[in-house]
Specification:
The chain has eight helices and four strands; from the N terminus they run H-H-H-H-E-H-E-E-E-H-H-H. With about 230 residues, it is mainly alpha-helical. The strands form two sheets. It has a two-stranded parallel ribbon with strand order 1-2.
């Protein structure tokens, strides 16, 4: 999924445009590593693909090639890209829910703390015109959360305001119910006394996240009501 749904979509050139040689070379090298990792579990199809992607010498076989080794991993970079993936998925979900085609380039409004490292990826895969870092989102914009951070898509030309209000109200009701269940645990002295400290801390984190989401959702609903 990482290779086909994300990497290939990211490096794919424009319509009827060729892929540059360096990107093609790196992509094939990446694919070869994936085939090598899969080979012990899917020997026949991986061997067939490995033989086909480039010209091989007689006697070459994936079966006798060295397995890839794990190098250093930048977990911070991976975590930041995961946030970008969540952003792209959220934009795609809004498009799907509102029936907005990809040819309609949207504007994404982001808070000041938005990490712009992968904005080029976000622009391409989210089919965005631009990303604006704003202190206040456009009144009536469709909002969504990535973690506890709020983003907005001004969609005045595409969105039924009344339907968006209903969606926000339903989400508020759900989060309120979730918060009640968390508070019931935290208000239970027996639970707090007997549960492992990390379990209690996890419930407190859920409480904080739910309260933050409720605040943002209510602000979004208020903005729609005033629009």
């Amino acid at each position: 999924d990482e290779f086909s749904a994300w990497y290939l979509e990211l490096v794919k050139p424009g319509y009827q445009q060729p892929m540059d040689p360096k990107t093609m070379e790196q992509t094939l090298a990446y694919f070869e590593q994936l085939l090598a990792l899969l080979h012990p579990f899917m020997p026949f199809i991986t061997e067939e693909l490995w033989q086909a992607i480039i010209d091989r010498k007689e006697g070459d076989s994936l079966m006798i090639t060295r397995q890839p080794t794990l190098g250093e991993v930048d977990q911070n970079l991976i975590d930041r890209f995961e946030i970008t993936k969540s952003l792209i998925s959220s934009v795609r979900t809004v498009r799907l829910e509102k029936n907005i085609p990809n040819k309609e380039a949207l504007v994404l409004q982001a808070p000041a703390q938005h990490d712009a490292t992968f904005d080029a990826v976000l622009l391409k895969l989210g089919h965005l015109e631009r990303i604006e870092q704003v202190e206040e989102k456009t009144a009536g914009a469709v909002t969504f959360l990535v973690g506890t951070t709020e983003y907005a898509l001004p969609l005045a030309a595409f969105v039924d305001v009344e339907e968006e209000k209903k969606r926000l109200e339903a989400e508020i009701t759900y989060v309120e119910g979730f918060l009640v269940s968390v508070m019931n645990k935290l208000n239970n002295e027996r639970f707090v006394a007997n549960a492992k400290p990390q379990v209690v801390e996890a419930e407190r984190k859920k409480k904080e996240d739910a309260e933050s989401k409720l605040r943002i959702l209510r602000e979004s609903l208020d903005a729609l009501n005033k629009a």
